[in-house]
Structures are given as C-alpha cells and as structure tokens.
Amino acid sequence: MPTGIEVTKQALDDFKKIQKYMLLAKKENATETYAELKEEYLIIKALLQVSGVYLAELDKFKE
Predict the structure, then answer these.
(1) Which residues contact 30 (CB under 8 A, 6 or more apart)?
(2) Of 18, 22, 39, the residue nearest 30 (C-alpha)
(3) Are 62 and 38 in contact (CB under 8 A)?
(4) Contact (Cβ atoms closer than 8 angstroms) between residue 11 and residue 47
(5) What is the percent of the chain where pLDDT is above 90?
(6) Is the dihedral of CA 59, 5, 48, 34 positive or negative?
(7) Which candidate, 52, 8, 3, 46, places its Cα nearest to that of 38?
C-alpha cells in the first residue's frame, strides 16, 4: 500500500504532466481536449490542496 508521501508525489507528477498537456492543447486551440484535461487538473489540484501542498509556485494556470 502506498504511503501518503508516495500518493502526493504521484499527484504532483500528474499535476505537472496535465499542465504541460493543457498548455499544448491551448496553443493548438484544441478546446475539447483542453476541457477534458481541465477536469482532471481541477481534481488533482483539489486533492493536492486537501493534502496541504502549496501550489502557488507550481500552478501555471491560477484557476
């Protein structure tokens, strides 16, 4: 069973990856793809905030 820190690290890795894909989708004007990624982004962001992770420096979208 993963520890809390392992879950948080995985969520941070996912957060970083989703932000990268969101930036690409926005650049390519892929609105449907961006919308789907944004849903995942918001879920992971909420999880990280509940876990006490300070996202101000990591969050590229400030949404």
Answers:
(1) 24
(2) 22
(3) no
(4) yes
(5) 68
(6) positive
(7) 46
Please say whether the beta carbons of 20 and 44 come within 8 A. Answer: no
| Spatial separation of the C-alpha atoms in residues 30 and 27, rounded to whole Å | 8
Among positive and negative, which fits the CA dihedral 9, 49, 23, 36? positive
Query: For tokens 């509940």, what's the residue?
Result: 50
Q: Are 62 and 41 in contact (CB under 8 A)?
A: no
Q: Categorize the per-residue pLDDT at 23 as very low, low, confident or very high, splitting at 50, 70 and 90.
A: very high
Q: 3-class DSSP state for residue 28? A: coil
Query: Are the beta carbons of 12 and 59 closer than 8 angstroms?
Result: no
Instruction: Give the HSE-up count for residue 57: Cα atoms under 13 Å, Cβ half-sphere.
Output: 2
